[in-house]
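so my prof wants the structure for this chain in the tokens format not the other one, which i didnt know existed until like an hour ago. anyway here's the sequence
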Amino acid sequence: MYELLIKNAIIADGYNCGVGDIAVEGGVIAARGTISAEAAKVIDASGKYLLPGAVDAHTHFDLQAGAFRTADDFRSGTRAAVCGGTTTIIDHVAFAPPGTLPHQQIKAYHQLADNNCYCDYAFHGLIQQADEPSLADMATLKERGIPSIKVYMTYEHALDDAALRRVLRQAAALGMLTVVHAEDDAQLTRLRDKFAAEGKTEPRWHAASRPAEVEADAIRRLLTIARECGDAPLYIAHLSTKAGLEAIRAARAAGQRHIYVESCPQYLLFSEDKYADATEGLKYLLTPPLRQLADNAALWQALADGSIDVIATDHCPFTLAQKAAGAADYRNAPCGIGGVEERMALMFSYGVADGLIDVNTLVNSCCRRPAQLFGLYPRKGSLMLGADADLLLINPAIKQTVDSKACHGNNDYNAYQGMALKCAINTVIKGGVIAYRGGEFRLRECGGHYLPRSL
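here's what i got, hopefully its the right format
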């Protein structure tokens, strides 16, 4: 007798899709196929899609950004994640005081996250200065199960080309993956200051100050540096433009290897028209900014053809009061929106149900590929025997709308409010335990585990 048996589901594992059963025992997948054995608990999943629990490779929980702290800490953020079908997150740590070594910032984040996560969790390291102590400490990160590091080409800790070269060489030597926020800091700073001097401080000027070429030029520079470093592995975070995508495709066509690409639902579903109203526009301040409809279409096509590897969220929500700090000047508002709970329902509704991608593309971009790229596969993102029994049931027969009052995060608004959904998250199973079902969050304790990783 199994502990749990899911019967008659439409099972999608990233490779195939067909009706079958999955049995769970001891927190892992114990059997798959047509199963006649009995179980202590049986779920009839007829007509529902069964996917691996989703992996969100880009969250910002309990993030201090200047004077502002995100609305979601690890407890509320992982609760929302589970209710949306995400059973593993990989969090990006915040900037630290000068002189802080990467492993020291990870230690600080363990104090925030340990015993406060409902889902399993891991961290990306952060290099904010490419000095010798930080570069040497990268080896410490890898030894401690953190084989991915984040660098920025903008913000106060932007790395110049020489610093990027040092980081990428060290990462390649250690077998680590470098995650990059790619925007050209000099261009965007010049444009932002020019517009501000002209009194152009409404939210729409946020997008104007960071046009598509700001992203594309940074990506071109980054790819050139990586190629000079022996095709050092790169993971380009939150791709938002067709121009950036074309730069990546050109590099791949020229034979450059180890280029991996992430985008986010907001860059597939929203466009610059969100900034038209000055008040509403504050809600959609994020970096990179929202783009044009042509960019949306290009990114959907890139996801369908495999040019985009991962759909993450860059979950970084701030409250209405925090956003209102930019009422007179958008530069004073914190940038970021939520999405960790909404991602899977949105991607199914506007991707799978609308025919832009198939269900296995959804599985690959939101489950399998992030687990593979960041050293969690096949334990995560997989329906193989022995994989963690992190499972997601999606009901495509239910039509609803995004309602912030029904969501489980801490923020007081939802960027996706009122959007039509062509499905519902029916059941989420975490480690063989029913964590969410029928609109009810069922976990009473934060039982998420920290996951050391190895590439």
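also thought this was worth mentioning. The two ends are 36 Å apart (CA to CA).
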